Amino acid sequence: MTSTDQQPFLSIRDLKVHFSTEDGIVKAVDGLSFDLAKGQTLGIVGESGSGKSVTNLTILGLHDRDRTAIDGEILLDGQELLNASEKELERLRGNKMSMIFQDALASLSPYHTIGTQIGETYRKHTGVSKAEARKRAIEMLRRVGIPQPDMRVDDYPHQFSGGMRQRAMIAMALVCDPELLIADEPTTALDVTVQAQIMDLLKDLQQEFGTAIIFITHDLGVIADIADDVLVMYGGRCVERGTKREVLTSPQHPYTLGLLNSMPDLHGPVDVELSPIPGSPPSLLNPPSGCRFHPRCAFADKVAGNLCSTERPMLEIVAGRGSACHLTADQKRELFAHYAELQRH
Description:
21% strand, Rossmann fold, single chain, 36% helix, globular, 345 residues, 7-stranded mixed beta sheet, 4-stranded antiparallel beta sheet, 13 helices, 2 domains
């Protein structure tokens, strides 16, 4: 992670989240560890099914306890969450930690006004009157850039545009000044102009409140705009970690390189073909042995002894930087530079 004197506000150690299904056990998260300090933004990136959202729903305790087996440790400001009661988690959700979901229209109730929904969240955790809650809702709508908030507070979600609904969701998530904000692809359904406005809003609010943010996305372009540090997930595991600059300019894992090479370069020639990663993400019911990326990896044959298909590579983090890959450091530098050069031509 980014070098800082701060102690981690959120600390996750060897988290495993497995679901029971009719077809077997789904290993959605399989040994994940990371830290996050206050005022920092961690971008978690990966394809659908990589374990990003499951990780963060588990932090909030929003999982089916009857069908989910969880192991490891989640510490929020020193408090263990995995053993916390539902009553204690309800107290923490919205108050100390909160989440912005991808689909604001599906997350907001169509039967209640925007102001009522924001105000009820505030009342639940503070016990203030309805009048005070309404005043707070107007204040939050103003903070997130909703015009005429004293009038729009009485509107229903369908009366808001997509961008305004997402702003209202952010207002609801921040109404109790949480210290941890989890944003689960909050800009995916928005056009690029509104997306940029939402990103700027999150950065401004983080600066104002000192909030720790986990930003989940499949888009490395978004990560480049908002994150301090990046965690790349594949098949329920972390395959690479580092600062934003390190990961985006000098990837250490073939999967990260594949993600970068599948992105269009806004500053390059328009006729350059993109290079999608071949194959499909692994089934977490029956994941590949060894490195879970090896069936799709362009470099697996460069490693001696079939290690990629037989032995799980360990994630070794040194000064916040590392990757889970059997390639040597020299191989990574040589092959990745060559591969990146091929993609540019």
